[in-house]
Amino acid sequence: MVNLIVACFVISFVFLTVSCARIYHRVPKENREFMDPLSPGLKLIWPLVRLLAFYVSENLSVDYLERVSKKLQVSGLSYIMTAEQYFAIRILSTLFSLGLTLICSAMLDAYVPQYLLLAAVFGYFLPVMTLNDLRKKRQGLIVKSLPVYLDYLTMSIEAGLNMTGALSQAVERGPAGPLRIEFEKVIRDMRAGMSRAQAFRNMADRVQVTEVNSLVSALAQAERTGASLGQTLRIQSDQRRIERFQRAEKKALEAPVKLVFPLIVFIFPVTFMILAFPIAMKFMYEL
C-alpha cells in the first residue's frame, strides 16, 4: 500500500513537472538586445513575470495597457518592461504579500481574514507606489540638471553651432542622468529626419515636466517668429536657475515645520526626563 502511494506521488510529480515545462515553453522568447538590463531582484522573478504576462496580462484592455505604458515611459521604465509585464509584477506582489501573511499567521497560530485582505491590497498597489516614487525621482533629476544643460546649449548656440551640434556638445559634457538620455533621443529623432519642434515636443510628452514644457514652447515660438535662439535659451536658463533657488529656499523654510513632530515626540520627552531625573532623585533623598 505504501509503495503504491509513493508510486502515485512520483507519477503525479513527473506529470506536474512535464506540464509546467510545456506551459513555460509556450511562452515566446524575449529579445532584450535593445532593452535596459534587469535589476537582480527582477532577474530572480523574471521567468514568472514572463509566464503571467503571456497567459494573464494579454487579456487586459488596450486602454489600460496604453495608460500603463505611458506611466512606464514617464518613470523611465519603458525600456525595462512592458505594460503586460508590469501587471504581472503586480500579481506576483499580491501573491507574495498573501503568502508572507499566511506564513506569519501560521507561526502565530492566528488567522485573521482582515489581515489577508489588507495584505492583498497592499501587495497589489505596492508596484503603483513604487512607480510613482520612481517618476517623482526621475522628474526631480531632470529639473535639477536642466539649467546646466541650458547653459551648455546657450554657449554652443552663441558660439555658432546649430541645434543638433549644440545638443551633441551638451550631451557630451553635461552630467549623467535621465535628461542626458532624453536629449540623446532628441538628437536621434532629429538625425532621423524629424523636425526640431516635433522632437522636442516628443521629449516633453515623455518626461511631463513643467519646466521642459516651457522650454519646448519657447523654442517653438522662437522658431516661428525668427527670434534669437541663443537669447531664448539664455532667458530659459536664467528662469530655471531662479526657480531652482526658490525651490531650495522653500524647502529650507519648510524644515522647521517638519521638525516639530520629531521634536515633540522624540527629543522633548528625553530632554525633560534628563532634566527631571536629578531633581526627582534630590527630592527622594531629602525625604
Automatic annotation (TrEMBL):
Coiled coil: none
Protein name (Swiss-Prot/TrEMBL): Type II secretion system protein
Pfam families per the UniProt record, alphabetical: T2SSF (PF00482)
Listed InterPro entries: T2SS_GspF_dom, T2SS_GspF_sf
Cellular component GO terms held in the UniProt record: plasma membrane
Source superkingdom: Bacteria
Key word rRNA-binding present: no
Topology class, membrane: Multi-pass membrane protein
Membrane spanning residue stretches: 86-108, 114-134, 259-281
Localisation: Cell membrane
Keyword set, alphabetical order: Cell membrane, Membrane, Transmembrane, Transmembrane helix
Location, primary (coarse class): membrane
Domain Type II secretion system protein GspF: 150-275
